[in-house]
Structure to design on (251 residues):
């Protein structure tokens, strides 16, 4: 009988490969998996932790899991290390701390492909659950860039055109090298770029620093959900950069 294995961040490839070999089901605890108020986590971790880690705890309060692997190394953050301690005391299942230092590049074909940005991020985050190599995709000519982590609320990605290239930790995520700082800080100065992080995330310092170095950039953050004002700021930035924002029906 297959087990339900929760993951936080990007565990080492060897861990993912073994879970795949065992035929167990992977549950990405970074993503919203339950319909419940996130404030239910207030008694467990501070509200000033990022919405991703609060979502991890919320999922663990409600989901039946058999085991959890959580990356507590430089590929995630120090806060994840402390959340691992909370989860270990909170849950009756093994909470296994890992430190992903993988250096073998798997590539980032999705980050440079032409497709709706929400679909792109969905496939990138889903790809963490498999150790299989990527199929090649044709690289598109970029019109703009998105730098940062996957947002908790993917509706933030709605205004971006299909020719958006992805940079930052999300590219490290697809490359399966989450601790690769050199790759994470890479950007394209030739295209207007939105630098994003979750509110209260330590990556805000790097986002702001790189945005200041970029000739056409906007730094932005949001907490639990992306409100209409946040999306309006992105739309205005794209329009001022000469790019027609995508206004899809699911916005």
């Amino acid at each position: 009988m297959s087990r339900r294995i929760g993951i936080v961040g990007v565990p080492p490839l060897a861990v993912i490969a073994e879970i795949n070999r065992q035929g167990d089901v992977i549950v990405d605890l970074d993503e919203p998996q339950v319909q419940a108020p996130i404030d239910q986590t207030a008694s467990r971790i501070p509200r000033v932790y990022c919405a991703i880690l609060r979502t991890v705890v919320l999922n663990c309060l409600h989901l039946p899991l058999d085991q959890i692997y959580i990356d507590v190394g430089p590929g995630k953050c120090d806060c994840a290390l402390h959340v691992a301690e909370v989860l270990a005391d909170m849950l009756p299942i093994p909470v296994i701390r890992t430190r992903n230092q993988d250096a073998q590049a798997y590539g980032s074909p999705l980050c440079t492909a032409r497709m709706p940005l929400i679909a792109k991020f969905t496939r990138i985050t889903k790809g963490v659950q498999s150790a299989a190599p990527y199929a090649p995709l044709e690289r598109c000519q970029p019109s703009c860039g998105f730098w940062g982590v996957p947002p908790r609320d993917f509706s933030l990605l709605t205004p971006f055109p299909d020719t958006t290239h992805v940079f930052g930790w999300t590219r490290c995520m697809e490359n399966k090298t989450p601790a690769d700082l050199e790759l994470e800080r890479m950007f394209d100065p030739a295209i207007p770029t939105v630098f994003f992080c979750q509110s209260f995330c330590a990556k805000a310092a790097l986002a702001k620093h790189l945005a200041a170095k970029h000739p056409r950039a906007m730094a932005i953050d949001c907490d639990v959900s992306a409100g209409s004002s946040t999306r309006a700021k992105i739309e205005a930035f794209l329009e001022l950069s000469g790019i027609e924002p995508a206004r899809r029906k699911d916005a």
The mean pLDDT is 95. The radius of gyration is 18 Å. The longest strand covers residues 193-198. The first helix runs from residue 13 to 22.
